[in-house]
Amino acid sequence: MAQDDKLTRYRESIDNIDAALVFMLAERFKITQAVGEYKATTKLPPADPGREERQIERLRQLAKDANLDPDFTEKFLRFIIDEVIRHHERIRDGAG
């Protein structure tokens, strides 16, 4: 097999994984949108630092188990959490 064919197969796999990640993130944000609406109607704060801390620790452990850099995983999750909080604040403020 030519080296370019091998590279093409690797890249196709990466493209499939990227597509799956996008759809998984979309699904996650659909759920967090519903959480934000629930929090707004029940007057709960947009952020839940205790939950965030538990999630970060849980995902750091999952990363270790998967031989993935836990620091990278935490940064990635923190980015997502910050975006979710921003969405929850917009919903709370009536702009969501």
TrEMBL record:
<keyword id="KW-0413">Isomerase</keyword>
<feature type="domain" description="Chorismate mutase">
    <location>
        <begin position="1"/>
        <end position="92"/>
    </location>
</feature>
<dbReference type="InterPro" id="IPR036263">
    <property type="entry name" value="Chorismate_II_sf"/>
</dbReference>
<protein>
    <recommendedName>
        <fullName>chorismate mutase</fullName>
        <ecNumber>5.4.99.5</ecNumber>
    </recommendedName>
</protein>
<dbReference type="GO" id="GO:0009697">
    <property type="term" value="P:salicylic acid biosynthetic process"/>
</dbReference>
<dbReference type="InterPro" id="IPR051331">
    <property type="entry name" value="Chorismate_mutase-related"/>
</dbReference>
<dbReference type="GO" id="GO:0046417">
    <property type="term" value="P:chorismate metabolic process"/>
</dbReference>
<dbReference type="Pfam" id="PF01817">
    <property type="entry name" value="CM_2"/>
</dbReference>
<dbReference type="InterPro" id="IPR002701">
    <property type="entry name" value="CM_II_prokaryot"/>
</dbReference>
<dbReference type="InterPro" id="IPR010951">
    <property type="entry name" value="CM_bact"/>
</dbReference>
<dbReference type="InterPro" id="IPR036979">
    <property type="entry name" value="CM_dom_sf"/>
</dbReference>
<dbReference type="GO" id="GO:0004106">
    <property type="term" value="F:chorismate mutase activity"/>
</dbReference>
